[in-house]
Amino acid sequence: MSRGAVVTGLVRxxxxxxxxxxxxxSKEVNIxxxxxxxxxxxxxxxxxxxxEIVFHLAAQSIVGTAVRSPMSTFETNIKGTxxxxxxxxxxxxxxxxxxxxxxxxxxxxxxxxxxxxxxxQGRYPYDVSKSCADLLAQAYFATYAxxxxxxxxxxIFGGGDLNYNRIVPGTIRSALKNQRPIIRSDGTLVRDYIYxxxxxxxxLTLAQKMGDLELQGQAFNFSxxxxxxxxxxxxMILELLGRSDLKPVILNEAKSEIKNQFLxxxxxxxxxxxxxxxxMEQGLLETIEWYRAFFEDESPP
Length: 301
What we know:
Layout: E1 8-11, H1 19-22, E2 30-33, H2 39-48, E3 53-56, H3 63-68, H4 70-90, E4 96-100, H5 125-144, E5 148-153, E6 155-157, H6 167-176, E7 182-183, E8 190-195, H7 196-209, E9 219-222, E10 227-229, H8 230-240, E11 249-250, H9 266-272, H10 280-298
Parallel strand pairs: 1-2, 3-4, 4-5, 5-9, 6-8, 7-11
Antiparallel strand pairs: 8-10
């Protein structure tokens, strides 16, 4: 919007506390109510609003939810992706499509960091759904020359995420409420974390440059390059909040999760000139301030 774009979003559920509503973003964009699992509203939103650039970000993105309900996850992440791709193929206004894949699409590899030419071999429900969605996008490029690119990001964090079973918002909420944070795993899982502002810049940079360069059909990893175990990240958040006294509760009950995952962003650096601009501490401090304001607004007078 700040760059002069007319934005249209497909929204499934009304979430009053979401950023879309809380910060009145919904007043500045066109909203189509529907779900990516249903083809008709997907095509209608792209066709009637004459969309030129499509960012396919819709997904069931919680690993635990995918384990409990694989069918709904496959419906959203796989069927939803082919619905978007098919609608983009049929609506001739579309000039560029960016599909959000994930580092989870790579699955388990002994050799790390992941590079873009590593095979996609998801094993668990969420990972498999992202591998499939990624391959579908590649198929639409190879078969129909659909102008599509793929993004594979590490674990994204930032303000506005109301899924408190994720480690960053969950730990911040616990600390602000004077509670010990919960770690579902044993705390040793190593992940690649990236601040949401870096991710937004990555998407916009790719959307701009894929029209100028011969990048269609390609995938790009986006990473901060900062590797942390879940326990290290939790302790970093507590320290930034001045609550190192709150020792995490380690449940060690997480299942169907990959032990270590991290990405190489060398291709994005070389082809797009993209670099992560936000250090981990800076991103976390901005995120903490967002949640602090959010919970203060929620508090009774």
